[in-house]
Design goal:
CATH class: Alpha Beta
Strand order of the largest sheet: 1-12-11-6-7
CATH architecture: 4-Layer Sandwich
Order of helices and strands: EEEHHEEEEEEEEHHHE
Distance between the termini: 6 Å
Number of helices: 5
CATH superfamily: PPM-type phosphatase domain
Number of strands: 12
Shape: globular
Helix content: 25-40%
Largest sheet: 5 strands, antiparallel
Strand content: 25-35%
Structural class: alpha+beta
Length: 239
């Protein structure tokens, strides 16, 4: 028995923002899926997320999974340096992006992330968040607007993003790989509008990956839709 990945993704501007600073990558041939959420405001954030997706989408995969992970980390570090240089050249505080990614290997799935874009796994009716948001609930020096100021009381702010610090640290988690498992990658435009319970309920329904993506986006737009909205679904099936 072999396991195949069926996937779909969609990114949407939302109801409030004027432009979409999110970017997604769906590459079943590479076993790689990505959601990036730009920070820095308007075209700067969109540039940052697009650079991540472009660079990762240009990778090839011929060696073992450890070589591929090393190539991913090298690419993100290169983008990190590019974004810092761009911010310095434009004399702005931050041009950056979060990133959440999923890599398929025969025996397991690898989840990597920087920032607060998320990866969930749904299995046997239960939804589990694999990532841990890089946010802090006290004044910090990074916000989604790129400003260096204290947030409103109770608001979480990013503590890590691509394009901020000279050295980029990517966190990784390992999940099982077996038929019936389903993974959701999303920007915070999804989890700002939908609770984990609502996400789990949607994942339990008998949707194709594309139908589930469309359903999650429609639900988020039906709420306030305050941010850009991006979702990628990866489903493992036996052949």
């Amino acid at each position: 028995m072999t396991t195949v990945c069926l996937s779909a993704g969609h990114t949407e501007t939302g109801n409030v923002r004027r432009c979409n600073e999110d970017a997604i990558l769906v590459r079943e041939d590479l076993g790689l899926w990505v959601v990036a959420d730009g920070i820095g405001g308007h075209t700067a954030g969109g540039y940052a997320s697009a650079r991540i997706v472009e660079r990762l989408g240009a990778l090839t995969r011929s060696g073992d999974v450890s070589d591929f992970i090393s190539a991913i980390e090298d690419s993100l570090q290169q983008v990190n340096a590019e974004l810092r240089a761009a911010a310095a050249a434009q004399q702005v505080d931050v041009i950056g992006s979060t990133v959440a990614l999923l890599v398929h290997a025969p025996a397991f799935m690898l989840c990597g992330w920087v920032g607060d874009s998320r990866v969930y796994v749904h299995e046997e009716g239960e939804l589990t968040q694999l990532t841990r948001d890089h946010v802090y609930d006290e004044p910090c020096d990074i916000t989604h607007a790129g400003a260096l100021c204290a947030p409103a009381a109770g608001a979480g702010v990013l503590t890590r993003a691509v394009g901020v610090e000279p050295t980029l640290f990517v966190d990784w988690a390992v999940a099982r790989s077996r038929p019936g498992m389903q993974f959701l990658l999303c920007s915070d435009g999804i989890n700002k509008e939908l609770s984990d319970a609502e996400l789990a309920g949607a994942c339990r329904e008998s949707h194709s990956p594309q139908q589930l993506v469309d359903h999650l986006v429609a639900l988020s737009l039906g709420r306030r839709g305050r941010d850009n909205i991006s979702a990628v679904i990866v489903r493992l099936e036996a052949t």
